[in-house]
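Sequence in, structure out. First:
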Amino acid sequence: MILVTGGAGFLGSNFVLDWLAQCDEPVTNLDKLTYAGNPENLASLAGNAGHRFIQGDIADTELVAGLLSAHKTRAIVNFAAESHVDRSIHGPEDFVQTNIVGTFRLLEAARAYWNKLEAEERKAFRFLHVSTDEVYGSLDKEDPAFTETRRYEPNSPYSASKAASDHLVRAYHHTYGLPVLTTNCSNNYGPYHFPEKLIPLVIHNALAGKSLPIYGDGQQIRDWLYVKDHCSAIRRVLEAGRAGETYNIGGCNEKPNLEVVHLLCAILDELKPGADGRSYKEQIVYVTDRPGHDRRYAIDAGKIERELGWRPAETFETGLRKTVQWYLDNQAWVRNVTSGAYREWVGKNYQDRK
């Protein structure tokens, strides 16, 4: 079996659902169930013998060691992370504890388990660490896209904590020989995305008749990756990636934030027109930019295409339409996750952004 950490969050739950739809290999799913971990994401797996959910922390070395030993684990796929830049600005310590200390303890448990395996099992074992393009810093408009050899220049507590975790993973390969893989992805979007990130926040606010906040001038550029394409890339890296290597995963869709919001409004105007006949674009407001906001991210995904034959299946337009339709079809899920705690967070993050 494989052990997936953070498997009730946005990326992790999509990966678990996708994995079990693609193959018969069982999954043990370990998630701490913080604000972004949601058991509802996995509701369709109720009664599925191939899925075992454990609530727990990757920093609990004893728990992780027991799970690895009990189920003849052949791979760990580590999604567990604090992952929102704005939250890292308000409370960086959680990011240090989960992304750095948690990854360290997970690596220690993996190393101890791997050292006890027979030779062939040791050779086949993999530790796949899921990271972000934000570790590379920010690009100017004319700069070439991030490659795997780009120098790390993290600019937020979030990206700094992820950069540290990447370095630990690399060190455990070079020092101890642990067969690791690292993936650095661009901005994901799709089903089960917690509505604090741009795309689900805009959909949620638009339908609720609330303002659609745009940081600064809205010209921050991101490369957008549909989450199911990301899942297929991780499966491919786990299957055929070279131990010790890093693979950048991108959607080949660089878009300014303002253009993304305009596209979302146009799709909503078509699929769920407002009762008053006005475009959702009229709800756009510009708010004070967040501190240290990186201007542009762009992924060069040439390595994963050359070595592993992977390319994204979705264009931004097809993926975005699927995403909007999913949120329209799953309003009960949205209502359940946008609880009092969520409203308190949104109020805290935007209260001073006039």
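Second:
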Amino acid sequence: MLTFAHPWMFWLLPLPIMIWWSLPARVRSQPAVRVPFLHRIREAKEGTSSLKANSQTQRLFFQSIQWISILIALARPQLLEPPISREIPTRDLLLTVDLSASMDKEDFTNSEGKLVDRLTALKEVLGEFLLQRQGDRVGLVVFGNSPFLQAPFTTDLELCEQLLEGVDVGMAGPKTALGDAIGLGINLFDESTAPEKTIITLTDGNDTSSAVPPVEAARIAKDRGITIYTIAMGDPETVGEEKLDEEALKEVAKVTGGEYFLAMDRSELEGIYQRLDEIETQEIKTVSHRPRRDLYFFPLITALLLSLTVNVVRLLKSRSKDLTQKSNARVRVNPRTFELEVTQS
């Protein structure tokens, strides 16, 4: 689609005519010479006046085209190309995964119904959840004795899913530092410009090695506008270091306006992530832009070429006329009548 950036420039189209009408006519005064052969000069002048009129008409035509071309160039013609759309994520979603030693316990089943450890079942369910979050920027933090950033915020969900597949039980230490994992997540959101900020954290034990208690970290998250959903995985009746601290997980979710979930088996875990997918709906902001390609140089080049052509033709005609006059003109004085006679050979 062709458009003009400055279409008001076309209002200047009658400007040369207005200037021609407003300015006074040029007056040239020449000394008169009386000659006895005036009729011969008049005849010669009548022959050249028609040629001169044709020349002026042609010059006016080319000058008009030049003026129109210059105006088109000043109006800045542009070609609108097909629109380019870009999707802007409206939510940053951080997943924190417990890799403590208790995640190696085989009390869950995989998609084929075989008994597997908790982390393997989590990878399958969370991997499917990840691939469904189109439009979100997703990050991944794993934690044991300390939290570690596995994947920074990215819209490449397949890459994030692959990095999730690469984690293993105990690679971050045998203990559970849930509070520190939340603290690391809060720091990751410092550079986030997304209007929605969410943390989904999963653990199968209680906090045993954090420098900051989970509830205190949750209060900081609330002040930063971050919502935390907590998922407890496994048997809540477990005792010892592997015991689930449901009260702390519930409080973390409550403080930030999130929810607490308990997954005793794979089906419950799948239901939790389906529920989270419904709660944290995917909102995508689409920005469309139509590139513009300038075409002003085409009429500008046309005006320059016309001006160059007209001046070259005028110069060639002038030189040809001078040469013709020098070679053909003959002037002599009649000795009887003392009249000047101009003859063409």
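Remark: The two ends are 62 Å apart (CA to CA).
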